[in-house]
Specification:
The complex is a heterodimer of chains A (384) and B (131). Chain A has 384 residues and is an alpha/beta fold. Chain A is 43% helix and 16% strand. Chain A is built from 14 helices and 15 strands. In chain A, strands 2-8-7-6-5-3-4 form a 7-stranded mixed β-sheet, sandwiched between helices. A 4-stranded antiparallel β-sheet of chain A has the order 9-10-15-12, with helices on one face. Chain A is globular. Chain B is an alpha+beta fold and 131 residues long. Chain B has helices spanning 5-12, 60-72, 78-81, 86-92, 102-125; strands at 25-31, 36-45, 48-57. A 3-stranded antiparallel β-sheet of chain B has the order 1-2-3. In chain B, strand 1 (25-31) and strand 2 (36-45) form a beta hairpin. The longest helix of chain B has 24 residues, at 102-125. Chain B is elongated. Classes of the chains: A alpha/beta (384), B alpha+beta (131). Chains A and B meet through helix 11 and helix 14 of A and helix 1, strand 2, strand 3 and helix 2 of B.
Amino acid sequence: MNRRVYLDHNASTPVHPEVLEAMLPYFSERYGNPSSIHSFGRAAREGMDVARERVASFLQVGKDEIVFTSGGTESDNMAIKGVAAARGRGHIVTSAVEHHAVLRTCSALEAQGFTVTVLPVDGYGMVDPDDVRRAIRPDTILVTIMHANSEVGTIQPVGAIGRITRERGIPFHVDGVQTFGKIPVDLDALGIDLFSFSSHKIYGPKGAAGLYIRKGTKMVSVQHGGEHERRRRAGTENVPGVVGLGKAVEVRARDMAEEAPRVRALRDRLWEGLQARVPEVRLNGHLAERLPGTCNVCFRHIESESIVLGLDLKGIGVSAGSACTAGNVEPSHVLVAMGVPLDWAMGTVRCSLGRSTTAEDIDYVLDSVEPLAGKLRSLSPLKG
Amino acid sequence: MRYSQTLIEHFRNPRNAGMMRDPDGVGESEYAECMDLARVFLRVRGGRIEEARFQTYGCGPTIAASSAATELIRGRSVEELTELAEASVEDAVGGLPADRVHAAQVVTAAIRAAARDAVARAGRQAPVPGE
């Protein structure tokens, strides 16, 4: 049996044992509907309240500014469509490297008559705050820029952007799914009005997430039904999931500061090892302003999927930077926006480390990648 | 695993990989949509394939299909290979998922091209009747 090494934490993470333990009673003992007034419902409501308290305290915001959702995608949709629906028309500023949950939501609004400016990024995947300033028009109703990129890990200058939007009185939405619980986030200091976050990227369960909505932000509900979440998100809450999210946040608040430097050191060990042992590799993303666990690398003249498959056969889980669907390969929109040349971009692999990653794991990955890259290159007609 | 054991085996241990010196036929095929590129070299003796080698850039299935196909065509007649069926390459690699059938297409096209090249070269080398 091969060693198993999971290096895809930006995609999802294993549920922390403490989180699982906190969730279990909410499946079998505290199963009531939190909207019910009897003791069964109240027991479920208590779990939700504790979770909301933990998230609000972690983000240093009010409890009534947190809305629980089913995932980061829903949070992004709620924020963008909610602001747009409240205004009816107008202009939205976003960037070329956003998650599809943001880009495609903006496109859908464009089809409904809104106008959208998609800002470019530099070679590190970073948005220039001056571009945001220049893009803002009198009819701009929203600026939506992610906090850190899930593929390359580049952390955007959201503080500088937040100062601009605050000056102009424009709501600022930040997709914080990749930074929440990984690096410190001060929503007030950064000038963020809407902040999407998720549970399963921080050792919580899938299907639980949330949106911070600064008090006074004008938006309307895009999902209609009952009175849940202060009438901002109709639908019976995923109580075990939300309880898990709350616990995950509590654990992150405790462990984050200690874990980030350890993970960053392992990430750098991986990149330094790759540089030393594999020819023609390049790092994508910002060197300093980058998520601690993200290492996105191009292997020139090798196709991403063949590396992913080769590593999978060694028990290693990484993700491909170019997705092949129905025989049609497209390099990621993030790498394209960064201007990564095609012959490099096609061989992109993202390694995302996490709390369980060890130095032995990294060395095993290096020992596996080196011969694999050599073998795949020896097969390739593009080289030699 | 979404791929067959045969496919995985060929991906792990590709047969007949690498270029060939002085081949009797060379063919190349590119699958533009996913940028896969396969190049096949043939050594022909008495109208039949004595040896086939490949160089391939592409996903795991395309590399595996290249390897399996070079084994499949050994001993076959060159004429026959100019019309090699994609299905036979797909079978040789133990089947392909619907979104990876291009692997068989690109390899088959490279083999057909190499076979046509071999036929053409043989024709040029054949003595002209009456001389």
